[in-house]
Amino acid sequence: MGRLVVIANQKGGVGKTTTAINLTIALASPERRILLVDLDPQGNASSGLMPPPQIAAAKASGKTIYEALVGRIDISEAIAKVRENVFLAPSGPDLVGAEIEMATMEGRERRLKELLAPIRNDYAFILADTPPSLGLLTLNAMVAADSVMVPMQCEYYALEGLSALLSTVTRVRRVLNPDLQIDGLVLTMFDQRNKLSHEIAREVNKHFPDKVYQNVIPRNVRLSESPSHGLSVIEYDIKSAGAEAYRLLALEMLRRTLGEAAAVEATTQEGALQGVQIAEEQPGRRMWSLRALFAREGERGRRGG
Ligand code: ATP
Ligand code: MG
Prior knowledge:
Elements: E1 3-7, H1 16-27, E2 34-38, H2 44-49, H3 52-60, H4 65-69, H5 75-78, E3 80-83, E4 86-89, H6 95-102, H7 111-116, E5 125-129, H8 136-144, E6 147-153, H9 162-175, E7 181-188, H10 195-207, H11 221-225, H12 233-236, H13 241-258, H14 260-269, H15 290-302
Parallel strand pairs: 1-5, 1-6, 2-4, 2-5, 6-7
Antiparallel strand pairs: 3-4
Bound molecules: adenosine-5'-triphosphate and magnesium ion.
The site of adenosine-5'-triphosphate has 19 residues, from helix 1 and helix 11.
């Protein structure tokens, strides 16, 4: 059964879409078809993976997730193949209207779950990118999902709003989706020269030791450049720190969901994610793991530096 992961945080600009796009590409392989559902009316995940003419065509012909949500087309019509083993259900500005149109529909919180049910087994993972709000679209994603992944920017107020998100998850669990899990918190835009980044990382790790992903996403200019080319960072610059970080995050995600043995088998059989061997303990790159980061801080502390 395909695992549906919703990427959510009602705070804007924390790296939800960047995480959705790059995890989608990092996870895809001949053994794993991935579907990305773009539930954000801003459509940034769509434009990050699909060329503008194709998006315009999808909108013009009404083949978007919006049309599927309001029941005008079948979900399969809204899904486009964007790479080998990578599929996208694009959004568009119309999605704002979907929230309003759906407001009076019976079972409005379960629309996405119902839509995806017949195609769920066609994919190893379905990722859903959501808007920066806890409205009906995000709620639909949480009701359909197996788990929630929460990107958090390593900035002041990173933890602010997290309690609102967590209590929404608790409420969804109680009423609509008892199996919903918190898959993990992802620290994004980590700046190793910035003391605050380290403090936030430590704070989040202290409060949520079992939930926080060990692989931290650094601030990396390649990550902000790649979407304007319609590419993931893995396709845009495979050697960049951003590409490395998202591939490691994908590997950690596989470990968490499949279990260690199955994940290692999956990635070694395929020659690792996206055909490039990941050197987890490569010197100089270890800063992207929390464990290594805290160890180095400890070392510096002992040296009095
Ligand atoms: P919104 O809430 O508006 O949907 P978001 O949470 O999806 O925002 P993104 O769009 O992924 O956030 O990121 C916000 C901006 O920061 C974008 O311009 C993106 O390119 C940039 N960005 C995201 N992650 C990184 C990173 N690790 N390094 C550098 N730039 C980044
Ligand atoms: Mg976004």
